[in-house]
């Protein structure tokens, strides 16, 4: 349900990673600056309080919110606000180690944020990182956020989109082995990704006629079928279809030279697989990049980094990508409301 609200959720993520730390740092940041954004952490009150006082070594007050209470009355503007959803104590967390026992709680944090979004109690949420191995070993329905969110919202059509002030890119395939990428790209799947992405560019980012670049799959974009036929048989025909329907769309481009020279001329870049997009994106936008699950009926964003087990529990985590994720979730929710009102 789309409803105007200043409340933006933050899911705590893996207790053994940097998620709780960046959630606390980001929440504290928005409390201190002049902004309408009101962050609410979905996680463990006990663990958030511990991270704040013992890891970050701050003495800010923490407000416990019951899951069934109204945020308008229970939220405290000068506090870090936490909806406690934990089923266990996290006093013995071993930072930097995979513990499958956390999976069910982590899944419940995400599920609750989805429910709050669907009910209009929050405008959207940003998710702190989780570990796929931990989730799967712990019996969670899915290892990653994107697939879980699709399931929880009954969404069949969604896409992984990455936003920064430098570029916006979307993936034609998500978390699959490279050996499966070619067979997973079909005309229908590529059409679907383009439709989702164009809708997101309009409704979420306010770009009504985006300039779209589509990358090739093979080296040199296939060299007209000499180094693979996916461009000739699948990608180029779909580009032509969209061009004939009035969209500003070019490609397929060889990805190496594209990111060296051409990318700045386009609003949206469609990449064929994960690393084709994420290597250049993270090189250019690591600390300010945001992952957006496009196509969902709710607003979900996240930082572009992972659990960073190597620095967990050491107060070394940079929370900037989480801050940008929260800001973008708020902006997308406002843009969707504007579009709905038109």
UniProtKB/TrEMBL annotation:
Keywords: Metal-binding, NAD, Oxidoreductase
Primary enzyme class: oxidoreductase
GO MF annotations, alphabetized: 4-hydroxythreonine-4-phosphate dehydrogenase activity; metal ion binding; NAD binding
Listed EC numbers: 1.1.1.262
Classification via InterPro entries: PdxA_fam (IPR005255)
Pfam family, any one: PdxA
SUPFAM superfamilies: Isocitrate/Isopropylmalate dehydrogenase-like (SSF53659)
Lineage top rank: taxon: Bacteria
Name of the molecule in the record: 4-hydroxythreonine-4-phosphate dehydrogenase PdxA
Protein source organism: Candidatus Acidulodesulfobacterium ferriphilum
């Amino acid at each position: 349900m789309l409803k105007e609200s200043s409340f933006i959720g933050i899911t705590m993520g893996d207790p053994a990673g940097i998620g709780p730390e960046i959630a606390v740092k980001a929440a504290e940041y928005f409390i201190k600056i002049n902004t309408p954004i009101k962050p609410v952490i979905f996680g463990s009150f006990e663990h958030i309080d511990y991270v704040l006082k013992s890891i970050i070594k701050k003495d800010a007050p923490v407000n416990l919110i019951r899951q069934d209470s109204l945020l308008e009355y229970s939220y405290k503007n000068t506090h870090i606000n936490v909806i406690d959803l934990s089923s266990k104590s996290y006093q013995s967390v071993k930072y930097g180690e995979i513990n499958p026992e956390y999976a069910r709680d982590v899944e419940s944090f995400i599920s609750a944020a989805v429910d709050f979004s669907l009910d209009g109690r929050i405008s959207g949420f940003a998710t702190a990182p989780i570990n796929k191995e931990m989730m799967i070993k712990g019996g969670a329905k899915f290892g990653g956020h994107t697939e879980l969110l699709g399931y929880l919202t009954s969404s069949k059509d969604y896409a992984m989109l990455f936003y920064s002030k430098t570029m916006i890119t979307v993936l034609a395939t998500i978390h699959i082995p490279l050996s499966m990428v070619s067979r997973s790209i079909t005309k229908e799947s590529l059409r679907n990704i383009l439709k989702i992405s164009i809708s997101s560019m309009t409704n979420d980012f306010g770009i009504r006629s985006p300039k779209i670049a589509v990358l090739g799959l093979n080296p040199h974009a296939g060299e007209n079928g000499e180094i693979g036929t996916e461009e000739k048989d699948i990608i180029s025909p779909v580009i032509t279809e969209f061009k004939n329907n009035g969209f500003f769309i070019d490609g397929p481009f060889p990805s190496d030279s594209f990111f060296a020279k051409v990318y700045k001329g386009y609003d949206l870049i469609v990449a064929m697989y994960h690393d084709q997009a994420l290597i250049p994106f993270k090189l250019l936008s690591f600390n300010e990049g945001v992952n957006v699950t496009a196509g969902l009926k709710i607003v979900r964003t996240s930082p572009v980094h992972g659990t960073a087990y190597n620095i967990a529990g050491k107060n070394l985590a940079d929370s900037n990508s989480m801050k940008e994720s929260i800001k973008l979730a708020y902006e997308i929710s406002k843009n969707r409301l504007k579009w709905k009102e038109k």
